[in-house]
Amino acid sequence: MNTETENKKACETIATIYGFFALSTLLSFIPFPQTMLLGTAGYLIAIAAAYIYKNKYTEPPYDTHFRWVIRTFWIGTGIYLPIMMVLMTVMVMSSVNYGVIYLSMQSGAPLDLERMTADLIRSNAAVFVEAALILFAYVCWWWYRCIKGYLALRKNKPIENVTTWF
User: Hey, is 161 helix, strand or coil?
Assistant: First the structure.
């Protein structure tokens, strides 16, 4: 195959990986198990493809794009995701009224989890809004990385600073 055909295939492969990441980010945070599972599968397919094809397309500018998507995956899932989950868990758990739970358990009455959850959300709406904003920032970070990479790819340019987080 000639170089032009190889470059076109490399460009299509990387564009597909960016698309999988962007779509998977959206699906992962729609609160239904099926969409979350599809989103997770999309991430895994994208990162597997990036690792498989990074050794096939080693010439510039494509080499930087593979490094960019691989770093996006590991920074997002290995650093930002755990920090975000711990922060959101602490925020939500700090707003729980454990006294009500304790008294209900002491009385032997069954816990009305639906009512307790509704009361928790109603009385701590600001905490849930803050948690949603943290989640939104995380999604925006993923999309920013995908869009930045895709736009550079469309211009047939390398990623300028692959090691940056933004």
Answer: coil
Q: Any residues with CB less than 8 A from the CB of 65 and at least 6 apart, and which?
A: 14, 149, 152, 153, 158, 159
What's the burial of 137, exposed, middle or buried (CB within 10 Å: 0-12/13-18/19+)? exposed
pLDDT digits (tens, 9 = 90+) for 54-70: 999 998 899 999 999 99
Closest CA to 7 of 58, 66, 71, 68: 58
The answer to whether 10 touches 62, Cβ cutoff 8 Å, is: yes
pLDDT tens, 126-137? 887 888 888 889
* CA distance readout (Å), 112 to 58, 60, 165: 58, 60, 44
Provide the mean pLDDT of the chain. Answer: 88
pTM for this entry = 0.81
pLDDT for the residue 42: 94
Question: 3-28 and 33-53 are packed helices; what angle lies between their axes, rounded to 10 degrees?
Answer: 150
Count other Cβ atoms within 10 Å, centred on residue 68.
26
Record the tokens describing residue 139, joined without a space.
């999604």
Does residue 49 contact residue 13 with C-beta atoms inside 8 Å? Answer: yes
Which 3 state secondary structure label does DSSP give 97? Answer: coil
